[in-house]
Amino acid sequence: MDSDYLTHSPYSTPGPLLDALLGPDPLPRAPEALAALVRGVLLHREERETFAYAVPVERLREDAESRYVTEILRILAERGDTPLTEERAPAERFVATCRDFALLLCSLLRETGTPARLRGGYGTYFQAGFHDNHWVTEYWSEGRGWVLADAQVYGDLHDTPFDPLDVPRDAFLVAGDAWRACREGRADPETFGVFTVPEIKGLGLVRADVVADLAALGGVEPLPWDGWGLMEKDEAEVTEEDLALLDSVAAVTSAAGHAPDAARPEGARRLLADPRLAVPAEVVSHTTYCGVRTVTLPRVAA
């Protein structure tokens, strides 16, 4: 077993509220059961019509700004006393983004003894011909190695041509794979973006996701709209040295899903020591509903 990703980050630790929310039911250990649990307590903010639920504006604005699993669990506790292992009514759910589905599943997998981590990249299974900006969980499976899982599309709400707990790597491209495909001319950067926000697309976005995915491998699981260092540079400011650095990072993060030794936490943190990549104490958060603001992050042990 690759045990490096069993340790919680400040973002994934569930805290004492987990036991209180579980009630009499123990936390299941199987990835399938944990994915069903996550799917039953979160509602993606783009699923309002699916659930026929008019999400209050403040929930759209505030829920997905929750960086930590402790905050997700606190909000769930405030919205109802349904045990965490039971599917909740829409009004009792946390209003999430893909990153929240990925983080909560990652947290529960770590809590029950399965190494797990977040991966940032692009899903090809939302819109034909388009690589949609997305976050998933990657977990360690004995005999298989690292496997991609997407709790957001688990269950009956979404129809995918694959098992959501075994997402093919050509269906979800980690950011390093996306970067290499664009740089090598195998993919059009303009097909990589945020489908619901058409102006957010292109190589600059992929560049930012390479850094964000590296940060997640190093124990800092960012919000999808966080930015710092090389992520914040305008395209005209990116140098050949910057591109070479990103090529190196992409080679490491691409290999991480295939070779267990390729991107252990300490390896990612060594790369993150470069000031162009390093996660600072404060990041710029380009929030969807609250505008651009500066956010202070917790310290992460080196």
Automatic annotation (TrEMBL):
Pfam families: Transglut_core. InterPro entries: Papain-like_cys_pep_sf, Transglutaminase-like. Gene3D superfamilies: 3.10.620.30. SUPFAM superfamilies: Cysteine proteinases. Residues 90-153 form the Transglutaminase-like domain. Coiled coil: none annotated. This is Transglutaminase domain-containing protein. It comes from Streptomyces spectabilis. The lineage of its organism: Bacteria, Bacillati, Actinomycetota, Actinomycetes, Kitasatosporales.
